[in-house]
Amino acid sequence: MNALKQFGIFLLLLACVGLSGCVWSSLLENSWSENFALANYGSKANHPALNDGRLDTVAAVAAKNERIFTVRFPEVKPVRKIIIHNVNLFWFHVDYWDIDKFEWKTVHSVRQLRDIAVKL
Fold it and tell me: How far is CA 36 from CA 8, 71, 92, 100, 119, in A?
């Protein structure tokens, strides 16, 4: 009888921990803002496929051309997360314009394989 009672208490504690984990995960989940890089939010890009919101379009330029892609926001906004869906870039830098120092600064440099979504 004592072992059965201990097993019941164990099951009750296991259920409480499991349910509290579900509650905490819903309370602590991240809520992200809209994708302000999209053209419909007023952002401008030097290639229309960069910010059209579709993952099936690809921004491509000839290899002999300079391959610098830019996205300009209509106003200064804090950025907490950048996701780049990459099909054919092996080595690239993500830079931003420092408005206080009037210079470009590198946020992150990437050297990778194909078909990886990069999260910064």
Answer: 52, 10, 22, 22, 16
Question: What residue ranges in the chain does DSSP mark as E strands?
Answer: 44-45, 71-72, 83-85, 91-98, 103-111, 117-119
What is the full per-residue pLDDT of the chain (120 aa) written as tens digits?
577 777 667 767 766 666 666 555 555 566 667 787 888 888 888 888 888 888 787 777 777 767 788 888 888 878 878 888 777 777 888 898 888 999 999 998 888 765 556 666
Q: Which two tokens stand for residue 58?
A: 């690809």
pTM beyond cutoff 0.85: no
Q: Phi, psi at residue 22, to the nearest 5°? A: -65, -40
Rounded alpha-carbon distances, angstroms, from residue 3 to 6, 7, 9, 59, 108: 5, 6, 10, 66, 57
The answer to whether 65 and 89 are in contact (CB under 8 A) is no
b/e burial code for range 28-50 (CB count within 10 A of at least 16 → b): eeeeeeeeebeeeeebebeeeeb
